[in-house]
Amino acid sequence: MNILVINSGSSSIKFQLLDMVAERVLASGLVERIGEALGRIKCTLRPGTGSERVVVRENRIADHTSGMRLAVEILTDPADGVIAQPSEVTAIGHRVVHGGEDFHQPTVIDDRVLAAIANNVPLAPLHNPANLAGIRVAQELFPQAAQVAVFDTAFHQTIPAHAYHYAIPYRLYEEERIRRYGFHGTSHKYVAGECARAMGRPLAELNIITIHLGNGCSMAAVGGGRSLDCTLGFTPLEGLVMGTRSGDLDPAIHAYLARNCGMDIEAIDTLLNKESGLKGLCGLNDMRDIHAAIAEGDQRARLALEVQTYRNKKYIGAYTAVLGRVDAIVFTAGIGENDAVTRAKSLAGLEPFGIVLDDERNRHPGGGPALLSHGTSRVEVWVIPTNEELAIARETKAVVAG
Ligand code: AMP
Fold first, then answer.
1. Residue finishing a domain among 104, 132, 151
2. How large is the average pLDDT for residues 45-59?
3. Ligand 1 binding pocket includes 214 (Cβ within 6 Å)
4. What pLDDT shows up at residue 334?
5. pLDDT at 402 over 90
6. Does ligand 1 lie within 6 Å of residue 194's CB atom?
7. Nearest alpha carbon to residue 191 among 155, 163, 157
8. Most-buried pick from 71, 78, 274, 392 (CB within 10 A)?
9. Above 90 in pLDDT, residue 233?
10. Which parts of 242-390 are beta strand (E)?
């Protein structure tokens, strides 16, 4: 059973083709700069095997359909491809960012589902239209394949009302659907499941804090396999300090910037989403660059690291209170998986909560899921590599299998 995973953005399409009998990646690729003067597709066929081959083409790629056509050409190339024809793809799993309150789980796409995704465009004006474009292209190029939507928000639909309501007039929830939705749901669900597997215990018995630290950052409180809270809110701007996004701030800052700095709402939105977070504090948004700058004595870079890890710690405390008893803390994504300093700083001083990191394990976790906590730690600390494509492919397979 071959499943194609598609993550369609406004000017890019990320894709991965997996053989889901062996859970093996057959090909993965990225189409970028769609609609620009010069577009690019890079596709790695049979990654990690002796016959790995990387194909790169640069041409103008007018739209998502042309981009996906190029991908199909490479995947089905008679000399080098990994499938003979598109009909060898059984199902397609689409990452869809916003399912609103309509979707609690992955869903086979039909006209009703397409309409619901379109209805959620106001909640994710950049993402949902791009996701819809990806679905339409896939329907055209793979007419025989089952199309499944896997929503970033679905896992968090179990967050209870007291956690998802903002304390603003109730009519704004009723009329504008303003509430906490939470994002990165596929990643949180996947690493919580993999953590339970690594611990050899049923997920239903475990309380886990999952911490996704990449370009985007979020934390979730997962009780018995259900999301009970998430730091990302109405949009993916709330909560932790991210690469270029501010995370939490006093909402009155919006009004201040408008009144005192002459900024309009678009400029404020750009400031908080693209020019804030680590980048706003020190000019750098890649944690590797931040460490290099700290090593050279850059005080702003040090401050950025301190602000981010302090926010992480504060939310670990909050979610410990939410869960009551914490069995495990999981770090994942680019920073979470690779940065021992971030992990150590985020957990420093939490020994009274039963959280004790093993320095040596933290510094050298090796690849794959790894236990980082000391034998005396009541809470197990894990690093679990996230794999959104595999997670989407598994969810898609489960939906198709009924
Ligand atoms: P992601 O969004 O999960 O791909 O994460 C991307 C971010 O992970 C990058 O911007 C880096 O800040 C961070 N990252 C990746 N590799 C490392 C590393 N070896 N050490 C520290 N941070 C890393």
1. 151
2. 97
3. yes
4. 96
5. no
6. no
7. 155
8. 392
9. yes
10. 328-332, 370-371, 380-383
For the question of residue 152 being annotated catalytic, the response is yes
Count of domains forming the chain: 2
Q: What is the DSSP letter of 373?
A: B
The answer to whether the CB of 70 falls within 8 A of the CB of 137 is no
Closest CA to 124 of 181, 187, 67: 181
Whether 377 and 240 share a structural domain: yes
Convert the pLDDT of each residue in 177-190 to its tens digit.
999 999 999 999 99
The terminus-to-terminus CA distance of the chain in angstroms comes to 14
Asked if 56 and 41 count as a contact pair (C-beta separation under 8 A), the reply is yes
Structure tokens at 163: 């956690």
Contact call for residues 357 and 373 (beta carbons, < 8 A) = yes
pLDDT one-digit tens code per residue, 82-105: 999 999 999 999 999 999 999 999
Bridge-based pairing state of the strands 89-96 and 146-151:
parallel
pLDDT of residue 367: 87
Ligand 1 atom with the shortest distance to the CA of 342: 21
H or E, element range at 18: strand 13-19
Strand, helix or coil for residue 150: strand
* Residue 341 CB less than 6 A away from ligand 1: no
**Amino acid in the structure at residue 159:** I
Residues 225 and 92 in one domain: no
More confident residue, 402 or 48: 48
The answer to whether 152 touches 96, Cβ cutoff 8 Å, is yes
Domain assignment present for residue 173? The answer is no
Identify which of 71, 135, 151 has the alpha carbon closest to the alpha carbon of residue 103: 151
Q: Which residues pair with 31 in a beta bridge?
A: 13, 41
Confidence at residue 126, expressed as pLDDT on a 0 to 100 scale:
85
In a domain, 159, yes or no: no
Instruction: Give the span between the Cα atoms of 52 and 57, in whole angstroms.
Output: 17
